């Protein structure tokens, strides 16, 4: 049975304890912690009944960088999110792919190779610790890799991992809800938009057909977390 989770995105910069109380009061079953400032130092007591998923750091890292020092540091940052997941007894770590910088455009294929190598290394580290790594599809922006769902499915098959479907990201790339459903999906992010900008609006404020998406996920046997990842409470 699918469970409802809430990302800390909407509640930043409140202290984590207040976030967890708010999420529990909503009746949600899970909290997704975005593991970077102000939550880069996380302490969770067992006074909360919530389960956890972890979103690896997003800012200031690039796991596909052609600069080896930057890439290795980025991998270590993602691995620190895996360590947090172990502490929280979570088996889901959401990972953003790398990006193609302005001067990296001629080397996109090489950057994509670096991205896959980094994801493979992170996945191996996580597997050794009993945690799953779930690469996420990106919205319609210049730079990020894995904007096309077909590329995401390919990574899933290449590495033998499940992935995070961000439905709102996929909508900005022109995918229908039917096209978003795949046996590769092991985690889901939900927010709304009009198909133009990844605006992280409340469900129902945009044009995504969530009923069709949920029906499709049920039909595919999805039993994971549906994480609401909106911009405000």
Automatic annotation (TrEMBL):
<protein>
    <submittedName>
        <fullName>Conserved protein</fullName>
    </submittedName>
</protein>
<dbReference type="Pfam" id="PF01261">
    <property type="entry name" value="AP_endonuc_2"/>
</dbReference>
<dbReference type="InterPro" id="IPR036237">
    <property type="entry name" value="Xyl_isomerase-like_sf"/>
</dbReference>
<feature type="domain" description="Xylose isomerase-like TIM barrel">
    <location>
        <begin position="43"/>
        <end position="231"/>
    </location>
</feature>
<dbReference type="InterPro" id="IPR013022">
    <property type="entry name" value="Xyl_isomerase-like_TIM-brl"/>
</dbReference>
<dbReference type="InterPro" id="IPR050312">
    <property type="entry name" value="IolE/XylAMocC-like"/>
</dbReference>
């Amino acid at each position: 049975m699918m469970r409802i989770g809430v990302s800390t995105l909407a509640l930043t910069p409140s202290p984590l304890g207040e976030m967890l109380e708010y999420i529990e009061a909503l009746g949600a079953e899970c909290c997704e912690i975005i593991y970077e400032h102000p939550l880069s130092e996380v302490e969770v007591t067992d006074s909360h009944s919530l389960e956890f998923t972890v979103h690896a750091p997003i800012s200031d890292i690039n796991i596909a960088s052609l600069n080896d020092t930057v890439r290795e540091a980025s991998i270590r940052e993602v691995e620190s999110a895996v360590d947090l997941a172990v502490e929280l007894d979570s088996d889901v770590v959401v990972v953003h792919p790398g990006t193609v910088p302005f001067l990296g455009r001629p080397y996109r294929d090489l950057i994509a190779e670096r991205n896959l190598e980094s994801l493979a290394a992170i996945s191996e580290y996580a597997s050794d610790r009993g945690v799953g790594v779930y690469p996420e599809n990106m919205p319609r922006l210049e730079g990020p890799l894995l904007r096309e769902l077909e590329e995401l499915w390919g990574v899933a098959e290449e590495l033998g991992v499940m992935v995070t479907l961000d439905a709102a990201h996929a909508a900005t790339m022109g995918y229908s809800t039917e096209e978003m459903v795949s046996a590769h999906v092991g985690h889901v992010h939900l927010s709304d938009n009009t198909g133009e900008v990844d605006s992280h609006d409340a469900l129902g404020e945009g044009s995504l057909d969530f009923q069709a998406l949920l029906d499709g996920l049920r039909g595919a046997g999805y039993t994971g977390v549906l994480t609401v990842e909106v911009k405000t409470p």
